[in-house]
Amino acid sequence: MGLIECKSISKRFGEKIALDDLSVDIPRGKIFGLLGPNGAGKTTLIRIINRITIPSSGEVLFDGRPITQSDVEKIGYLPEERGLYRKMEVGDQAMYLAQLKGMSAAEARKELKQWFVRFGIQDWWKKKVEELSKGMAQKVQFITTVVHRPSLMILDEPFSGFDPVNAELIRKEILRLNGEGATIILSTHNMESVEELCDEIALLNKSRLVITGGVEQIRRRYGNNNIELIYTGDKSLTDFDGVFKVLSDENSAGRHTAVLTLLEGVSSNDALATLLGQGVTVNSFKELIPRMNDIFIKLVTEEA
Q1: CA-CA-CA-CA torsion sign (11, 14, 18, 19)
Q2: CA distance 217 to 15
Q3: Residues of the domain holding 33
Q4: Is 82 contained in some domain?
Q5: In whole angstroms, what is the distance from residue 217 CA to residue 209 CA?
Q6: The whole model's pTM is what?
Q7: pLDDT of 153-187, one tens digit each?
Q8: DSSP class of 285
Q9: For the chain, how many structural domains are there in total?
Q10: Which of 282, 279, 247 has its CA nearest to residue 261?
């Protein structure tokens, strides 16, 4: 049973179908990627989980029972469209938002001060929000999303507006929070981050669920039995009947980089044994597993 179970969720806005009979489980203690092109229904689903929007049909379960407003208070939500009060001082703003999540003033100040030091922004406490760059404001909003240590965090495009250094800081914090037990829903278009961070994903397109499952399982499912082989020798490799075909073979001063496709029923161990049996000097032999970016494009394009 997942921490969050979305059961047959549909949402209509007039004639527009935003979600169409979508069911997905978000496992406890994992980083779960919510993927899809613009307009796929990701934000609508996030808003339904947060009880900002009510589904037209279906239900959301939190810890096995219908989600309530008190459950929402255990959620840390970072929306894609950020919102801080520009005229307020950063410290006052952070204190206000932390106390809205049920923290006492003393507890909020203590935790926020620690976060500000961790993010290297302790000198910003008295600055007004309008004085901050977009990236600085993003840091403050991330902190106010997680400071009350919610059991579930929903992060919508959390790397938007960050340079590579600060994006890496946020990645490390996401992993640390998850390591401490938080369940995290990560909605992003950054497929590299999906591969680095996510345990499981759900891909939405045109208001429906296209695929869900473990990241590595999905990558292997869409693999095409290709192998990258690096070997040395004067002669280029040729097809070997019943085992593999050579798709490409580039030779640089006797060092070859080849791509083989294994024929049906042939394992990578079978192919390697064949190569070694033929006296091929193998330097490197690895499966070519497709990237999530390629799978995303393939699935979304096929649905077009």
Answers
A1: positive
A2: 37
A3: 4-220
A4: yes
A5: 17
A6: 0.85
A7: 999 999 887 889 999 999 999 999 999 999 999 99
A8: E
A9: 2
A10: 247
